[in-house]
């Protein structure tokens, strides 16, 4: 498997400085700052990028699980809401709430939910994050 890369550049001190984050193949480049991370400033932040990675990973794993069970999804749309909280150990990712809507012809709700739960447990980003963060799932069959 290929090795995936990303880079970050930062200038200045923590609260007044700013930086740029980019993926290795140039698919994404964005600005980040103290305000975009800990307030509501313009730009992205590391936690938002982790949430995007989790939403993408889950959607792909869910689509694969559906296909393995004989169902071809028309669409899977997932939002990941990452909670960055201050704990006794400092700031940390404490919870990620996955919300997904799947348009999957011919599937019943029970099967849909079972496959969604399996994707939540087994996508690589979930496996990376779950030792330290609670992961919740709200799956809706469209």
UniProtKB/TrEMBL annotation:
Name this polypeptide is given: Peroxiredoxin
Pfam families hit by this protein: OsmC
InterPro entries referenced in this protein's UniProt entry, alphabetically: KH_dom-like_a/b, OsmC/Ohr_fam, OsmC/Ohrsf, OsmC_Ohr_Peroxiredoxin, Peroxiredoxin_OsmC
GO annotation, biological process: response to oxidative stress
Single GO term (MF): peroxidase activity
